[in-house]
Specification:
With 343 residues, the chain is of the alpha/beta class. The chain is built from 13 helices and eleven strands.
Length: 343
């Protein structure tokens, strides 16, 4: 992965957490430059997750998002007015049942249903956009509730899902599936991949914008209606990022990611990094806990915790740009990064 030709300017705008002392953190003061991609690094057990997840996220979510979370002990947050919301993006599923899918999660399905409701056949029959939702009575198959599958509860085993014997997995009733756009009904559209749908809906900017973002994050191969339960952690994470990219940027959002490249192919790491840099270019701040040197070397700012794990960790060993970190011989990250930057 190439090092960015330009790093974000480190301005005087920042948010600071003072007296962070959860678990093994040694009452440290942490400054996060705003509008940057900041990597929190260090050996395992050095206090990275305690700082990012237990302190920064919980404290800001409690203050800004009104979430009932108890943060790890700290003294004060300075310059919180520079942030309007905090969002943690992890590899957890976008839904727990087959009913959830990329189209519904990214709000892509809304303009698609509106398009089908505007077709002449729909107007003759009096169909509204809700008719093409598999979550609403009327258009869905009532035998399976629009899920396309039926759940069989198993004793001492995970629930089993079998294809609905009424709709044969199509989710909708016969009348709804009779409405077609360019020869495709709503179920056919859900079976399309993102790449196929981009070409199919190329004359519809609202739909195309959502699809282009999914393709941009490297998910052109997934189906629009692919059940959430079949998506990997990395795929779920990129769907969440695509949804964030579709929102109007405020330039004051703080994004938190805990080792987002775990389990990802090298090419997927590159795509993920490009997304994070895109969020930063919109003026937002991205904080990433990371061990991958290919990501760390692309950061604008690094905060290295350590020097060791457990009781011997919890200190800030080094902070600065990657070029600053490699000059610090006390930093394990700096030593390793030195070799990476020389390649």
């Amino acid at each position: 992965i190439e090092i960015p030709s330009e790093r974000a300017n480190i301005s005087n705008r920042y948010i600071e957490f003072t007296g962070c002392r959860g678990h093994n953190l040694k009452c440290i003061n942490v400054k996060i430059p705003l509008g940057t991609l900041t990597c929190i690094t260090g050996v395992s057990g050095s206090g990275k997750s305690t700082l990012v997840d237990d302190t920064i996220y919980r404290a800001l979510a409690r203050r800004l998002n009104r979430k009932p979370l108890k943060p790890a002990p700290y003294d004060e947050i300075k310059h919180i007015e520079n942030i309007d919301k905090v969002i943690r993006i992890d590899q957890s599923p976008i839904g727990r049942t087959p009913r959830s899918n990329p189209a519904t999660y990214t709000k892509l399905f809304d303009p698609i249903r509106q398009l089908f409701a505007q077709l002449p056949e729909s107007k003759v029959r009096g169909y509204q956009p809700g008719r093409f939702s598999f979550n609403v009575r009327g258009g869905r198959c009532e035998a399976c509730g629009g899920a396309g599958v039926k759940k069989v509860e198993m004793i001492l085993l995970p629930d089993l899902y079998i294809v609905c014997d009424v709709c044969q997995g199509r989710r909708y009733n016969r009348e709804t599936l009779e409405v077609r756009y360019k020869g495709k009904n709503i179920y056919d559209v859900l079976r399309m991949t993102v790449d196929e749908a981009l070409d199919f809906f190329k004359t519809h900017p609202r739909i195309n914008r959502h699809l282009a973002l999914l393709q941009k994050v490297g998910l052109g191969y997934i189906e629009l209606g692919q059940p959430a339960t079949t998506l990997s952690g990395g795929e779920a994470q990129r769907i969440k990022l695509a949804r964030e990219l579709s929102k109007k940027p405020t330039g004051k959002t703080l994004y938190l990611l805990d080792e987002p490249t775990t389990g990802l192919h090298f090419d997927d790491v590159k795509k993920l990094l490009n997304i994070l840099l895109k969020l930063r270019e919109s003026g937002n701040t991205v904080i990433v806990i990371e061990h991958n040197p290919e990501v760390i070397k692309c950061a604008d700012w690094i905060i290295d915790l350590g020097p060791e794990g457990g009781d011997e960790g919890g200190y800030i060993v080094a902070e600065g740009t990657p070029e600053d970190i490699i000059k610090n011989d006390r930093s394990y990250t700096g030593r390793h990064l030195r070799e990476v930057l020389r390649r």
